[in-house]
Amino acid sequence: MDNKKSSARTILAHVVLIILAFLCLFFFYILIINATRSHAQLQLGFSALPGSSLIDNFKSVINDPAIPILKGIQNSLLVSGCCAAIVTYFSALTAYGIYAYDFKLKRAAFTFIMAILVMPTQVTALGFLRLITGMGLDDSLLPLIIPSIASPAVFYFMHSYMQSSLPKELIEAARIDGSREFGTFNRIVLPIMKPAIAVQAIFTFVGSWNNYFIPALVITSKHKQTLPIMIATLRGADYMNFDMGKIYMMITIAIVPIIIIYLLLSKFIVEGVTLGGVKE
Amino acid sequence: MATLNLKGITKIYPHSGEQKKAKKGQPEKKTNLQVTDEGVIAVQKFSLDIADNEFIVLVGPSGCGKSTTLRMVAGLEEISGGELYIDGKRVNDVEPKNRDIAMVFQSYALYPHMTVYENMAFPLKLRKMDRDEIDRRVREAAETLDITQYLDRKPKALSGGQRQRVAIGRAIVREPKVLLMDEPLSNLDAKLRNQMRAEIIKLRQKIHTTFMYVTHDQTEAMTLGDRIVIMKDGYIQQIGTPQEVFDHPANIFVAGFIGMPQMNFFNARLTAEGGKYFVSVGGCKVELSAEKSKNLAARKVQSQDITLGVRPSHMVLAKEAGNTLSATVEVSEMMGSEVHFHANADGKDVVIIVPTMDSNGVHIDSFHPGDKLNLTFSSNVCHMFGQNGENLEF
Amino acid sequence: MKNENKIKSVSYAKWGYIFILPFFLSYAIFSLIPLADTIRNSFYEYYAFGLKTVGPNWTGLSNYTSLLSSDLPKYAWNTFVMWILGFVPQIVISLILASWFTDARLKLRGKQFFKVVIYLPNLIMASAFAMLFFALFSNAGPVNSILLRMGVVGEAIRFMESTLGARTLVGLMNFLMWFGNTTIMLMAAIMGINPSIFEAAELDGCTHTQKFFKITLPQIKPLLTYTLITSLIGGLQMFDVPQILTGGKGAPDRTTMTLIMYLNKHLQAKNYGIAGALSVFLFIISAILCWFVFKMNTDSDPDGSKSAAKRAKKGGKA
User: Are residues A28 and A79 in the same domain?
Assistant: First the structure.
């Protein structure tokens, strides 16, 4: 019918998408370019071409005793990795408990978790800080890991996934085959939940890697800092006297690993965003 | 290979506000299950003694409690009342894994992340059997079920029929005392279902175990069962061999449920005249056979209004009108060796089965819609049901 | 039948409790106890003064009244303005993109590439992203450098020194971080609509614009509402971006100071009484928003696709 009109729409759509994609990538492009340039080069103004100071900047970042970034990466990896493992295992466990068994408080438990689904953790930060100080866990990485056992949103995701992908007959078959309840969970349920677990492990890892508010309040000593806290100290330092090449390099170190993981798993992650929500 | 005794097994689903809340907005499910203060009674005083190596089929419409009964035997549902014995041992409080039973599910319930071999080996591994013995048993079962070539595949890569074989395989490798099957053929298409039905009959001859089989399909029940238990609304309606329940249905429900096409029912009058019994329906009055009269007399049955049941193959076409029931052909269904006529007799639909040719291969005259028929029935294969639906003879 | 395990009866209820125990234990210890403690502190005069600690002394509601007479309303307004600056473009662009991505007639190329790219900023460390923006938009930063060289502006724009500039930067970053995510959620909802409705509308003579406003939009309304509420909760928690961008000062003149930045300030200063009152205030707002989310999740499915489909069916009959 109106081919001209529809091709005009197609062109418009492509133009808008290219602009948005440019907007998303442009900043990262500048970041990476600038990370390759020395402070002196950066002072001369922006250049679209990379410089030659990539290695120098990298060396000066990892050799800076004021900001022990390697230790920071190590701490961040430890916290994010543990969180991803704990969150997925215990959320699946909780979801399975509510999905597979009938008990008196089942509905109440489910309702409670749904009620706190999106409750921000910041509102209890005060009491949390006082509590962990009382427990002697302040300035420790443990309070950044242990509380993630209770992650309502991940629970909800797992529960939805079970409803669509874990037939109860399978649990009964395992029971008759002679499996114990924990055995059934570990040997039958977890393997079936693999896609959901992988997606949530990634999101939790990234979320924890990027988390700033609580870690900044809990961690006080330098060698226990995670990456976001270190980034924040850059801003607090006397910014004007700082080596700009080094700043760009530090930001690069903080976000490039995530970008690489994302690009490798992008299809999987993008699909995963809506995985648990869409029921058959 | 074990006896199985169910003594007054009852299942009551307690009322709970939670369940009602969960189902709000949905229309109430229509069942005739009895509701008491304690809850909904899904199975009512189910008693049955199953002999070693017997094949028992529980059959009935959906919601009759047959699956619940099976699941209580399996240990997947708590038993609310009554006692369950396997090999003379009370097992009410024994976990399913210690009951020495195996079960085949309607949806097969194969573990999707394991290969066929692993699926079948799983129950044996859990019993800490040694590897060689597991291997021997799995291969033997695979051989029996003709699935050896699929052992390395995942269930996803199998067809419905193959999955069903694996599910059966997983159940029989354990050499259980009792093999439970919950509508195992329902997810298959008609052709495969017939094929698998034959396979189960063959399997039954190969392995020595007690079967308990649930289905809603009366053909499966008739072809597979040594004895059939017909259930409705949580109550047992009749227990008997396929021949018994077909020939002597205990009540209208059983009469209508067993047999395809369904038995014809007529409003009729039973009259007792000097030791003889007559049934009159429409313009047709038939004297009952001596045997039936004897049965009725033995129970001192009086003259009364009854429901008369006659199977379609037992309807007789009379050459001429007179002491017959007249009907008009509405639909004829050609089945090959026979024709099913649906006829209208006084507003009631009556089905009559007529062979297409006689034993000499000569075609019998057929009928067309609108043709008048004169019907009668044979006096020794009709069934008389009283006002309460019970068979008056037994 | 040798190792026959005698248990009271074959009931698995206890396993349900065992499996959910860690969750509830952890939640009780790390969230409920702190919540109670937070509320309790809000009624006490309790703060650090130099190296000394004042209190705790019971003062009733005085923390609340002093909080309300402080700059709290201003910070609430800041938070709201910066949220709106990000949310409005986010929802508009996401709707347009989602309808394009799901329009088979549009023959979009590189769909997967665009989806991957627009989702990317969502995963970036907000603090590093803010630091990056701070460096890029500083007076001598690359953005000004480019604008000057292109002759767009005569002298460097002092983004961080004007209220509008700083707030817009925060809004822009929030937009960039969230529009990809919203697009993907909306796409899933639109794809959940029965396609024959669109075909019927087309046969009835609907234009693209009409299809979008009369069919797509009403069908995905539940998800739009859900996005709005969850985004509000996210906005309420706004912290990392303005904190790093302004060095925690909320510059210029505390016009980018958000509620959580304010809370953070009191927590760092160990002003437990005021921080407690502020937390309770945030808790009440959050609880109201949580209630909406709860209602939506328990009444219908989370992405609204099922209710969309349900409505689609009804619409089809009408």
Answer: no
Is C227 contained in some domain?
yes
Structural domain boundaries enclosing A174 = 66-236
Question: Which of C10, C298, C310 is the best substitution to test chain B (most B C-beta atoms within 10 A)?
Answer: C10
A115 in a domain, yes or no? yes
Q: Of A32, A53, A74, which one is at a domain's C-terminal end?
A: A53
Report yes or no: A261 and A72 within 8 Å, Cβ to Cβ. Answer: no
Contact C19 A111 (CB under 8 A): no
At B291-343, the pLDDT tens digits run 888 888 888 888 899 999 999 988 888 877 788 888 888 888 888 888 888 99
Pairing of strands B325-334, B264-273: unpaired
Share of chain C above pLDDT 90, in %: 24
Q: Read off the tokens for B306.
A: 């009854």
Over residues B78-104, the pLDDT tens digits come to 898 899 999 989 998 888 888 999 999
CB neighbour list of residue A205: distance below 8 Å, 6 or more residues apart: A80, A81, A83, A84
Q: Which residues of C touch A93 (CB under 8 A)?
A: 19-20, 22-23
3-state secondary structure of A168: helix
Note the pLDDT tens digit of each residue in C124-148. Answer: 888 888 888 888 888 888 888 888 8
Flag if C12 and A181 touch (Cβ within 8 Å): yes
Cα distance from N-terminal residue to C-terminal residue, chain A: 36
The answer to whether B307 and B313 are in contact (CB under 8 A) is: no
The count of domains in chain A is 2
Q: What pLDDT digit, counting tens, does each position of A115-165 carry?
A: 898 889 889 999 999 999 999 988 899 999 999 999 998 999 899 889 888
Asked if C11's CB is within 8 angstroms of B95's CB, the reply is no
> For residue range C182-215, what is the model confidence (pLDDT) as tens digits?
998 888 888 888 888 888 888 888 888 888 888 8
pLDDT in tens, B225-236: 999 999 999 999
B19 has pLDDT over 50: no
Q: Indicate the SS3 state at residue C118.
A: helix
Q: Yes or no: is domain B261-385 CATH 2.40.50.140?
A: yes
B113:A167 CB<8 A: no
Strand partners, B281: B284
Any idea what the Cα angle at residue A115 is, between residues A109 and A118, rounded to 5°? 125
CA of C92 vs chain A CAs: smallest distance (Å): 13
Q: Which chains touch B (3 or more CB pairs under 8 A)?
A: A, C
Number of structural domains found in chain C: 1
C1 touches chain B (CB under 8 A): yes
Residues of A in contact with C96 (CB under 8 A): 16
Q: The domain B4-100+176-255: what is its CATH number?
A: 3.40.50.300
Residue C94 sits in a domain whose CATH number is: 1.10.3720.10
- Structural domain of C229: 40-128+170-317
Of C76, C291, C262, C306, nearest to A118 by C-alpha is: C291
CATH of the domain at A224: 1.10.3720.10
